[in-house]
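User: Just a sanity check before I run the rest of the batch. Below are the structure tokens for the first item. I only need the designed sequence back.
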């Protein structure tokens, strides 16, 4: 890990879903930007901007993820959405505290963001990724079965001289 990084992206954080991995990578990048802004001075404009960017992108990413989960009819979608919602609420409270100049430790905020994101990816996101891969496998299996039936049908049609409707 570099001195100016709070977290270094590695392949083991990847779920194997390119769009989501790309967004998670970006989230990690924004967390590092936040950390860097802490090092540079916690009361600066750049820190406030880094907070806003991290929060905005988190919301954007959650939205994209939830759309994907709807598309694949993920059975635990409501629980997953709630995790997102709770986190967004916590972020909003922390940001408000920061704006009001109340109990807010920038470094802790950056670390909290990092810990939450990495834990969420490793546990909750991993579960939906497994579900999606399972779904893909089943679809491929069904496709293979359909192809096998069609091939057998064509074969019997050839040897018996008729066609299935
Ligand atoms: Fe998620």
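Assistant: Here's the designed sequence for the first item:
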């Amino acid at each position: 890990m570099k001195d100016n990084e709070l977290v270094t992206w590695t392949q083991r954080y990847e779920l194997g879903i390119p769009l989501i991995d790309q967004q998670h990578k970006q989230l990690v990048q924004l967390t590092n930007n936040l950390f860097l802004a802490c090092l540079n001075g916690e009361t600066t404009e750049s820190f406030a901007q880094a907070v806003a960017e991290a929060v905005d992108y988190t919301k954007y990413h959650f939205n994209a993820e939830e759309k994907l989960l709807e598309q694949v009819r993920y059975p635990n979608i409501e629980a997953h959405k709630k995790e997102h919602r709770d986190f967004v609420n916590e972020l909003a409270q922390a940001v408000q505290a920061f704006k009001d100049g109340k109990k807010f430790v920038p470094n802790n905020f950056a670390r909290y963001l990092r810990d939450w994101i990495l834990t969420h990816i490793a546990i909750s996101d991993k579960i939906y990724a497994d579900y999606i891969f399972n779904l893909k496998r089943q679809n491929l299996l069904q496709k293979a079965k359909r192809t096998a039936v069609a091939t057998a049908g064509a074969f019997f049609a050839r040897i018996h001289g008729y066609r299935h409707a």
